[in-house]
Design a protein that fits this description.
The protein has about 375 residues and is mainly beta. The chain has a domain of about 110 residues. It is about 0% helix and about 50% strand. The protein is built from no helices and 31 strands. Strands 1-4-31-30-29 form a five-stranded antiparallel beta sheet, with no helix packed on it. Strand 2 and strand 3 form a beta hairpin. The radius of gyration is 19 Å and the shape is globular. The two termini are about 30 Å apart.
């Protein structure tokens, strides 16, 4: 059985002044697939045409496969029923895939990993990743896959008594994991307690990790990298020039954009404003909002974020200039982007529905 695919118009953002895509023009076709009663979607690319979607539904975790770049999906397969599954506010399953091997991680006080070796048809697990029981109980983590198939998992960890950033790796699709390492701990008290971390590999195997720190009363984003073949990370660097003095956690991390050759940008929010940071450049203000995500394009970057109850977006040319955001989807939140090979299109997944009550996961294809 296959989920039917609906076609509808979506906003086509066209080039404006400063080389930006800003205001809507003629609508472009977009495929749109809806998964009812679902939450916290994540996407993974396994090959040129195969895409996987993971999401939560109560205590259940499902994965659906597409063999046509997200235009249609086969019926979802239940990975597991996990009582106490943490789901919401970027807590939920993470997924990576390479060929027929698919790895899903999730949290219920401990980080659990599940593996499929037959392209999502059947699943084995769980395997507990954190080697100190309940040290990962905050539930916020991210999963990244290197070009040679190594899975890297990072999470907020309490084994030291205060929140730190821990990590582990798997070379067999998540069936076994390395010893846990605390890769960053704040020199003061802790890192920010409930903002999701992010991890990304570039095409050469260089790795970047992004998290919200807590230093000098400021809740700013910090990034560090590990070059391909290296075993240690670089000295962490704060993202952007400004700082956010905040007593509390905004529950909003950021995302990394791989530029190649070990260079990474980051997108995040500070005091309700979405910003982009690039090495060697001043921070770029994109507009009001939160929960930003980004995807590299052939000529720049696609950025999507929440503004109130809606999703806004802009396409930013490589020559950074003030962005002009446009409404993308009404009544949606927690966006996820997945660029397709050859920059043919980008998949967008998000939650849609009332703030309180049943929501659906929607996957749609944005024109290049």
């Amino acid at each position: 059985m296959r989920f039917f695919s609906l076609f509808r118009s979506t906003l086509l953002l066209t080039c404006a002044a400063f080389g930006l895509v800003a205001a809507p023009a003629e609508p472009a076709p977009s495929s749109r697939v809806t998964f009812p009663s679902a939450a916290q979607p994540r996407l993974a690319l396994a090959s040129a045409d195969r895409v996987f979607l993971a999401y939560g539904q109560g205590s259940d975790v499902f994965v659906a496969r597409s063999d046509d770049r997200g235009a249609t999906f086969a019926a979802p397969v239940k990975v597991a029923t996990v009582p106490g599954l943490m789901l919401g506010m970027r807590r939920g399953p993470r997924i990576v895939a390479r060929g027929d091997i698919v790895t899903v991680t999730l949290n219920r006080k401990d980080l659990l990993a599940f593996t499929s070796t037959d392209a999502g048809r059947t699943w084995s697990g769980p395997v507990t990743v954190n080697d100190v029981p309940e040290s990962a109980r905050e539930g916020l983590h991210d999963l990244a896959l290197s070009p040679d198939g190594r899975a890297f998992l990072t999470w907020l960890d309490l084994r030291l008594g205060k929140m730190a950033l821990a990590a582990a790796e798997s070379t067999d699709g998540g069936r076994t994991w390395s010893r846990n390492d605390v890769i960053y701990r704040s020199p003061e008290i802790s890192i920010c307690e409930c903002c999701h971390p992010s991890a990304t590999f570039d095409g050469a195997g260089h790795l970047a990790v992004l998290w919200r720190n807590s230093l000098g009363g400021a809740r700013d984003l910090w990034l560090m990298t590990r070059l391909s073949g290296a075993t240690s990370f670089s000295t962490p660097t704060k993202q952007g020039e400004g700082s956010w003095q905040l007593k509390g956690c905004p529950m909003d991390g950021g995302q990394i954009i791989a530029r190649g050759a070990g260079a990474f940008d980051s997108v995040w929010q500070r005091d309700g404003q979405v910003l982009l940071a690039s090495p060697g450049s001043t921070e770029l203000h994109l507009g009001p909002g939160r929960q930003p995500v980004a995807a590299p394009l052939a000529t720049g970057t696609l950025l999507v974020w929440q503004r109130g109850p809606d999703l806004y977006s802009t396409r930013l040319a490589q020559a950074h200039a003030p962005a002009v955001p446009a409404l993308l989807v009404a009544g949606a939140r927690f966006p996820v982007l997945l660029p397709l090979p050859g920059h043919r299109a980008t998949l967008l997944a998000y939650e849609q529905g009332p703030a309180k009550g049943a929501v659906s996961v929607v996957v749609e294809t944005l024109a290049p």
